[in-house]
């Protein structure tokens, strides 16, 4: 899709002044700038964000060489690896982040205005229908960040960044995830609703299903993807995280990754304890989604295919372990998302 940058000449004076300020600041002290997007889909990839960049054209103050997205990082709960509902977008300069923010907002407004919401809505614009220099049909077809009915929340993080954000920028992700030994090129997070299965049982189900379907889930020579269990580190000094100062907003912004992981882990333990008061011990053991698995794939296509097939499907297969526990419960249901 090609999106024209036309229309930026009509920027309000305030936006024009901000552009000049950022251009001046970047010339004196260039720095990586971070935008955060909230309430987005949990399975977005970098290409979904890059698709909004005008390809092959020049946008004032921003060329692809200077303003391309450096990295997109999904926010995570560091105890469970669950998607936290937001993404960090890293840019090489303040100006490129500002231009992208304005351009994405402009595209979203166009998409919201021209996306049908009911039978009474106007028909979608045909291919080639131009609005403010953009192909409205192409924009609607390609915009996948959030539903048109929601509000776009895309804002810039102010400097100085918190220690954890500095770490994310430096390592292009959470070090505990991206720097761990044995990391695969493409990965997914797997948790099970219902009875909890061992890694060997999950591997057996995936191997048997792939063999029957003549599909290599891994995207490589092996049928089953690489499977490893996620175990969060929980070694922060309790005196540091339980002090009165640790509950303030300023301290929260200054947490390190290890401290944030500990807090996420503590909340997970507290929720498990609360749930145990309402359930018997055997039911608790069967149904609490305590196990978090990381699945490794060779290609993005194999990762997407795996998610499309297995997400919200029973983790069982004919000829493999059914996943039923001693209580005769139903097989567990897989929840899979990109990591």
CATH class of the largest domain: Alpha Beta
Strand content: 15-25%
Order of helices and strands: HEHHEEHEEHEHHEHEHHHHEHE
Given helix and strand content, the structural type is: alpha+beta
CATH architecture of the largest domain: 2-Layer Sandwich
Any idea what the CATH superfamily of the largest domain is called? RRM (RNA recognition motif) domain
Do you know the CATH topology of the largest domain? Alpha-Beta Plaits
Helical residue percent band: 25-40%
* Cα-based radius of gyration, to the nearest Å: 23 Å
Largest sheet: 4 strands, antiparallel
Per DSSP, the total helix count is 13
Average pLDDT: 76
Number of domains: 2
**Using DSSP, what is the number of strands?**
10
Low-confidence stretches: 1-9, 235-253, 282-286
Strand order of the largest sheet: 2-3-1-6
Distance between the termini: 26 Å
Q: Which geometry do the CA atoms define?
A: globular
């Amino acid at each position: 899709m090609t999106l024209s940058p036309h229309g930026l000449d009509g920027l309000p004076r305030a936006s024009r002044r901000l552009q000049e300020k950022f251009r001046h600041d970047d010339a004196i002290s260039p720095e990586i700038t971070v935008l955060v997007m909230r309430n987005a889909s949990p399975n977005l990839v970098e290409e979904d964000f890059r698709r909004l960049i005008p390809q092959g054209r020049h946008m004032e103050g921003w060329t692809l060489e200077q303003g391309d997205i450096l990295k997109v990082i999904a926010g995570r709960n560091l105890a469970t690896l669950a998607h936290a509902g937001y993404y960090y977008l890293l840019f090489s300069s303040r100006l490129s982040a500002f231009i992208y923010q304005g351009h994405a907002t402009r595209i979203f407004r166009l998409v919201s205005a021209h996306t049908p919401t009911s039978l009474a809505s106007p028909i979608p614009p045909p291919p080639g229908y131009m609005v403010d220099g953009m192909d409205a049909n192409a924009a609607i077809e390609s915009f996948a960040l959030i539903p048109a009915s929601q509000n776009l929340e895309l804002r810039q993080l102010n400097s100085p960044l918190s220690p954890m954000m500095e770490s994310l920028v430096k390592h292009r992700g959470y070090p505990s995830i991206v720097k761990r030994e044995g990391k695969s090129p493409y990965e997914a997070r797997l948790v099970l609703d219902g009875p909890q299965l061992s890694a060997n049982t999950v591997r057996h189900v995936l191997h048997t299903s792939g063999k029957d379907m003549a599909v290599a889930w891994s995207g490589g020579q092996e049928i089953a993807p690489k499977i490893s269990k996620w175990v969060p580190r929980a070694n922060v000094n309790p005196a540091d995280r339980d002090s009165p100062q640790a509950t303030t907003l300023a301290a929260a912004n200054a947490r390190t990754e290890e401290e944030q992981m500990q807090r996420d882990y503590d909340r997970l333990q507290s929720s498990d304890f609360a749930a145990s008061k309402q359930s018997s011990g055997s039911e608790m053991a069967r149904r609490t989604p305590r196990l978090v698995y990381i699945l490794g794939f060779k290609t993005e296509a194999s990762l997407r295919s795996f998610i499309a097939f297995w997400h919200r499907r029973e983790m069982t297969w004919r000829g493999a372990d059914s996943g039923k526990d001693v209580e005769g419960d139903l097989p567990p249901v897989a929840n899979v998302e990109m990591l």
